[in-house]
Amino acid sequence: MTTARADGIEHGSSILGYPRIGARRELKHALESYWHGSIGREELLATGRDLAESTWRELAATGLEQVPGNTFSFYDHVMDNALMFGALPRRFEPLAAELEPIDLYFAMARGKPDFPPLELRKYFNTNYYYRQPIIDPDVEFSLETFPALSDMLLDEHRRAAAAGIELRPIMLGPVSLLLMSGAPADAPEDFTPLDRLDDLVEVYIKLFEKLSKQNTKCVQLDEPAFTSDRTPEELEALHRAYQRLGHAGLRPRILVTGEYGDLGPALPILAESPIEAIGLDLISAPLSAAALGKIPGLKRKRLYAGVIDGRNIWKAAKGGKLDYLLEIKKEIPDLVVSTSCTLMHVPVDKLIEPDIPGDVADRLSFAKQKVGEVIALAKAITHGAPEHWYTRPTSVHFKLKHDVRQRVANIRPDQRERAPYPERKAAQEAALGLPPVPTTTLGSFPQTEDVRRARYYYGQGRLTWDEYADRLREEIKRVIELQEDIGLDVLVHGEAERNDMVQYFAELMDGYTFTHMGWVQVYGSRYVRPPILYSDVKRKGPMSVEWISYAQSLTDKPVKAILTGPVTMLARSFVRQDQPLHETAEQLALAIRDEVRDLEQAGIKIIQVDEPSIRELLPLRERGREGYLDWAVAAFRLATGGAKPETQIHTHLGYSSIQQVVEAFNALDADVTSIVATRKIEWVLEELTEHGTAIERQVGPGVYESRSAVIPDIATIDERLTRAASVIDPARLWANPDGGLKTRHYWQLEPSLRNMVAAARRLRRRMADGQ
Q1: Which of 99, 193, 464, 500 lies at a CB distance of 3.0 to 4.6 Å from 104, suitable for a disulfide?
Q2: Which pLDDT band, with edges at 50, 70 and 90, does 396 fall under?
Q3: DSSP characters for 710-764?
Q4: What distance separates the 2 farthest-apart alpha carbons in the chain?
Q5: Alpha-carbon distance 708 to 725, whole Å?
């Protein structure tokens, strides 16, 4: 039974969010069926309603004492929150009159002709991406601009209450919502979205009034932006917002959470505000009970102690967690056991995974199991814990790979060094003979239905290896011929053999295991199954040489090999926790180093070692970043340090701010670095203007968004390349999309690449004419 305080708030156990995709990707199937016209609007909406309802009914049935609500989204919860409060970007207003609300919503997320989508941005230090809201200076915040979303939240609460379930609706807090938003290109130079905070807060209060009239007891406002370094002005805005919200006349009780890190100076501001509860991520930023007890005002709050990891899949050591919680309870008596963040970053259920080795499976905990851990800890606080919680398990011992550990121990500094860049540049120019502003892509091409079917049949044993390999070679040949026809200068083999940029390589290494249904959302309907890295890592043999060599045999143009870098292999896997990340990164780097050597021996002259996730592990606060970048850069250089001078090493820093990694930019020592610039090329140009002279290597700012369905015209790409050439020496400039093309259709890919090639040739002609 739930125990209750005199003020009516339940005690005990809760979580800060839950996966919204369905255990078997029901949301993905419904979305893509709707986008392809296979199902209608009502069927899609019904699927969303059923997914949301099944989640809160299931959570209530587990015995969880506080059930989160409003955890569902058809595409992205950040965009949902902005639209719910009326932040409809002005540039989409022409569509509002002609589209149904759900179709207008998808237009903002996916784009339409002449209406590029909202920009895709990294969600703090997670593997999730959100569509960045745009706050126009004169936007009129209102619950009536896009009422479907607030109606959905209120209706869900009513339906749950009718079933005897009290939901705690979750929303992004107003300050984080504005800090995560952007301003339109035509906004005054001194305008920031945070300027509109006071107006936005008033609309939150109106929603609170509606919820209160439905007898909502508590709302959850997430303020993850404050786990990063913030200015005094931003901290003052937090203070002002929660003073106003806390003193609102008719409202539910307010829980404010700081997911993904340390709230730092924001914590005392919240502790001394009129809100009732605070949620802390005690996994990313553990605080001692004594330190918590010294924070003024915190003893008077309800503390949601986030001691169950919402971002990794290993079981908690519950005995140690319980001791920690009991110490905290001495300082903060009103305690709720919780997760460190929403559980949307982990798969739904371990029990639907029959093929994970038993000794690994016994150590795993997915979203459903983490709910059980939260409940068990909450009960143990009152009733005590079973003795086995404090007994170290003896049945799980993974054998160490002594040859791997010895090789890591023997790493020499010179293994991270290549020949000086000027020497390499001359050798590469002689070997490659590329024109100015070379054109290329970043690796993946769309996977056709034939390729996916062949992979499925091979996995089912319905194709032999030779039959499967023949189908892949046919696809590689077709992709090479298409690129030659388009006129690209550096080709790729298209990655037909790869299911995912991380999983493909992980499957060819010892030390990993895999799930069948362990999906997590990246954005929209894009999901991945992160592999599980549980032991020492070692390459089983060459991983890409066969396919790249075959592609190179089909053309006289250079074919670029694509490998996934060690930091991205870490960031996009669920990683063992029994040794520091940098040690695991060294093992991965040595495996990749061996692959680079084998590719060189096969005659491959350009090798791209992708690190699109190097920012994902970057600490949110300045302290700790230097140490992280030291080992991340060291791992990359170990992976590439054995390459010959004439081998051109590329990398791809996706969705990363140059300003945050500029010191590492040169330190990586890649010959060519591709970065994201799409539509927001201004931020890249500004940072290149500021830091460009310090960047000594070649640069490929993305000239169109690979994830958008919009086909860029020649003039748009020409303008972007021309502007890039004004701040980057054109001799160091490359033209490429801003990411892989796996998610596109060929009818989108082909004209986009032809336009990119035409724009690059225009720039070359102007360069030749001295313009």
Answers
A1: 99
A2: very low
A3: ----HHHHHHHHHHHHHHS-GGGB-BB-SS--TTS-HHHHHHHHHHHHHHHHHHH
A4: 82
A5: 24
- What does the DSSP assignment read for 685-698? HHHHHHHGGG--SE
The values of phi and psi at residue 361, to 5°, are -55, -35
Q: Which of 36, 93, 79, 117 is nearest to 710 (CA)?
A: 117
**List of E strands, 520-644:** 520-523, 526-528, 532-539, 560-564, 574-575, 606-610
pLDDT higher than threshold 90 for residue 347? yes
393, pLDDT greater than 70: no
Percent of the chain scored above 90 by pLDDT? 79
Q: Which two tokens stand for residue 762?
A: 């225009």
Length of the chain: 771
What are the residue ranges of helices labelled H in 351-494?
358-361, 367-383, 402-409, 421-432, 449-459, 465-486
CA distance 119 to 130: 8
Question: How many helices (H) and strands (E) are present in the chain, helices listed first?
Answer: 27, 20
pLDDT at residue 652 in the model: 87
- For residue 748, is pLDDT > 60? yes
Spatial contact of 175 and 275, defined as CB atoms under 8 Å apart: no
Note the Cα 88 to chain centre separation in Å: 24
- Which region, left, alpha or beta, applies to residue 122 given φ > 0 means left and ψ of -120 to 50 means alpha? beta
DSSP 12: E
612-640 tens-digit pLDDT: 888 778 888 988 888 998 999 999 999 99
Q: How far is Cα 683 from Cα 738, in angstroms, rounded to an integer?
A: 14
CA-based nearest residue to 587, from 545, 634, 542: 634
Residue with tokens 């709720």: 336
Predicted local distance difference test score (pLDDT) of residue 689 = 64
- Amino acid at position 100, single letter: E
pLDDT of residue 114: 87
User: Which residues are within 8 A (CB) of 381 and not within 5 positions of it... i.e. 6 or more apart?
Assistant: 322, 325, 326, 329, 335, 337
CB atoms under 10 Å from CB of 253, counted, come to 17
Closest CA to 501 of 573, 416, 415: 573
Average pLDDT, the chain: 92
User: Which ranges in 123-265 belong to alpha helices (H)?
Assistant: 147-162, 174-179, 197-213, 232-246
**354 CB neighbour count, 10 Å cutoff:** 7
- SS3 state at 170: strand
Give the pLDDT band of residue 656 (cuts 50, 70, 90): very low
* Residue 271 confidence (pLDDT): 98
What does the alpha-carbon distance between residue 344 and residue 348 come to, in Å, rounded to a whole number? Answer: 8
Lowest mean pLDDT among 343-357, 388-402, 529-543: 388-402
Q: How far is CA 190 from CA 183, 187, 194, in A?
A: 10, 8, 11
Q: What percentage of residues in the chain have a pLDDT greater than 70?
A: 93
